[in-house]
Amino acid sequence: MSLLALRFVGRDGSKGVQTFDTAPWNQGGLDVPLLRSAICALECVLHHHQVVGTHGVFIGRTVAARAGDGSPLINCRAELRTLLPQG
Questions:
Q1: What gap in Å lies between CA 61 and CA 47, rounded to an integer?
Q2: Second label for 32, Cα 20 to 30 Å away, from 17, 26, 45, 50?
Q3: Would you say 41 and 23 are in contact if contact means Cβ atoms under 8 Å apart?
Q4: pLDDT at residue 53, as a whole number
Q5: Whether the Cβ atoms of residue 20 and residue 33 lie closer than 8 Å to each other
Q6: What are phi and psi of 2, to 5 degrees?
Q7: Per-residue confidence band for 50, with pLDDT thresholds at 50, 70 and 90
């Protein structure tokens, strides 16, 4: 999964719809692509959009969710890392 994550942050030069070419997808209830192997999927409708400086902040209202098993990845300091369970 980490190679796919790197693809979505642009490390392999993929852009736009090319990003979606190398993984299996399902269509969600809102007719959006959902990655089959994702450990979580949220489908949202736009609730609010706010421009803050040079960025846009989008707030969505979740209308569907799917959860599975696996370890989440985060992108920290340009590296993919896993979250370790606490306890």
A1: 6
A2: 50
A3: no
A4: 96
A5: yes
A6: -65, -35
A7: very high
Q: What is the chain's Cα-based Rg?
A: 15
Alpha carbon 9 to its chain centroid, in Å, reads 10
Structural tokens at position 54: 């040079």
Question: pTM of the prediction?
Answer: 0.69
The listed range with the strongest mean pLDDT (19-28, 56-65, 72-81) is 56-65
DSSP state of 5: H
Tally: H helices and E strands in the chain: 1, 6
**Contact yes or no for 73/82 (Cβ under 8 A):** yes
- d(CA 57, CA 71) in angstroms, rounded, equals 27
Contact present, 59 and 47 (Cβ < 8 Å): yes
pLDDT at 27: 92
Q: How many Cβ atoms sit within 10 Å of the Cβ of residue 73?
A: 16
